[in-house]
Structures are given as C-alpha cells and as structure tokens.
Amino acid sequence: MTSPYKPKVALCFLTYDRIVQESIWNSWLAGQGDYYSVYIHSKEPLQINMPDVKFQVIPRVPTGWGTLGLVKAELKLFEAALEDHTNAKMVLVSGDCVPIKPAWHVYNDLMSTSKSMIEFAHHSQVFPRYDSLREHFDPANIVKHSQWVALSRRHASYLVMKTDTISELFADAKIPDECVFGTMLMDAGESGRLIVGPGTMYVDWERGDPYRFTVIRPAEFARMIESPEFFARKFSVLAHISDGSTRQSLFDALRSVEVIP
C-alpha cells in the first residue's frame, strides 16, 4: 500500500535577524514545497525577502551564545515542525549558511535512512567541559557534538517531550547546544538509531571560531562542494569567489555547479 503523503524535510533556521544569502535559498527552495517545509526563529525582528518560499516564523525565545535559551529555541522549532505530520526529518540550519548540494540530493540522502545525523566530537573534548553532567548521566553517554543536527521525527518528538527535563538537567552545562540532543538520545538508548558523522554542516574551525567566508578561493569552493556535508557556514552578505583577478558571486558559483537551478 502506498503512503498517502510524501514525507518532508523541515528546515529549521536559527537566525539573528535575516537569512544572509536569501536569494540562494529562495532559488534552492523554489518549487520544493512537496519536499521541504521551512521554519524560522529570529533573535531580532526578521527581515526577509524570499518570495518563492513558504515559511513559518515561530515566536521568539530569548537566546544568547552558549546559553540554554538557544536549545529552547531549537526545541520550539522542532515543536512547530512536528505539528505537520508530513515532516519526517528536522534539520537545524543557520541564517548564515548556504546549501552546497542540490535540493534533490539532500532530500534523497536524508530520506534514505530513518536514523538521525549528529556529528560527534572526539571523546577527549567532552570533559572537563561537561563535568557538571556527571551527576545526571552515565559519563559514557555524555557527548559533545555539532549544533547542526538532522533529527528523525522519533527523536525530535522525544526531545520536545523532554523539554522540562532538559531545562532542569542542563541548567549548568557549558555551551549546552553542543551536548543536549546527543546526550539525551544516548541516555535513552538510541545510539543504534544515530549516524554520528560526518555531519550536515561544512565549517572552517581552523581559521576562526568559526571562520566567516567573504573572499573564497576557487580551490576552497571546490573543497566545499566535494565535501560530504549538505550545507556550509558562515558566509557574509558579500561572499564571493575570487582568484585575485576574477570575481564570481556566490549565487553564480553555486548555479555553475548545479547546486541551485
């Protein structure tokens, strides 16, 4: 018996006040309403111009870097996405990221498995940062991971249901957005339903915390496109490709490699 609906990917944007490269996203998502839904949390009043994309802006949650407020905003994004029964995967993305794979590629990869994708850091990075969690969890289940996760409906539902528990147990955790979801799911015995690497987001941690791309060398752009990740960050509004003598907009560069139509 065929399914009565097509499962969707819910893109859950965390933004400051805009989607920085909105023309890229508008083109990438145009005509994708049967495959993607879009939810946005904005720290400040949202400025947006994506005429070809239907999206839902959720009520603002007070947020700050390294605070539990960021996790609460993420959970509210998941909660909004779960209201649509067709949303099968909930993917966190930032307002300063761009897609580096075509929409069909991202959709097919995410839908090829029922598992969630969470990029775990090496265990040497867990302690002493998360020592405060030892009183609540088996240390073997405490993990550090990328904030940018792709969760199954099962896992997003579980985490939303545990919102109050998360607020209590992670109240003193440092940079909780890099430990809450993975630790909660590991503690729930869900390790077998997780893909723990690579993740969904290409980030340059070597040159920054993370590095913000403005001038991108052609070889660097090629590395992004060839990487296994679906998205990349952080990009400034002026981001472009240049070898020093020629210049190409990020939009045109992504179109030239067929990431956007």
Describe how the helices and strands are arranged.
Elements: E1 8-15, H1 22-29, E2 36-42, E3 56-57, H2 68-82, E4 87-94, E5 98-99, H3 103-111, E6 116-117, E7 150-152, H4 153-161, H5 163-169, H6 180-187, E8 194-195, E9 201-203, E10 213-216, H7 218-226, E11 231-233, E12 235-242, E13 247-249, H8 250-256
Parallel strand pairs: 1-2, 1-4, 2-3, 6-8, 9-11, 10-12
Antiparallel strand pairs: 4-7, 5-11, 12-13
Helix pairs in contact: 2-4
Taken in chain order, the helices and strands follow as EHEEHEEHEEHHHEEEHEEEH
Percent of residues in beta strands: 15-25%
Q: Tell me roughly what share of residues is in helical segments.
A: 25-40%
Total separate domains: 1
Overall mean pLDDT stands at: 96
Structural commentary:
With 261 residues, the protein is α/β, with parallel strands linked by helices. It is built from eight helices and 13 strands. Strand 1 (8-15), helix 1 (22-29) and strand 2 form a beta-alpha-beta unit. It is globular.
What key phrases describe this protein's structure?
5-stranded mixed sheet, Spore Coat Polysaccharide Biosynthesis Protein SpsA, Chain A, about 260 residues, 3-stranded mixed sheet, about 30% helix
Question: Concise description?
Answer:
The chain has helices at 22-29, 68-82, 103-111, 153-161, 163-169, 180-187, 218-226, 250-256; strands spanning 8-15, 36-42, 56-57, 87-94, 98-99, 116-117, 150-152, 194-195, 201-203, 213-216, 231-233, 235-242, 247-249. With 261 residues, the chain is of the alpha/beta class. The protein has a five-stranded mixed beta sheet.
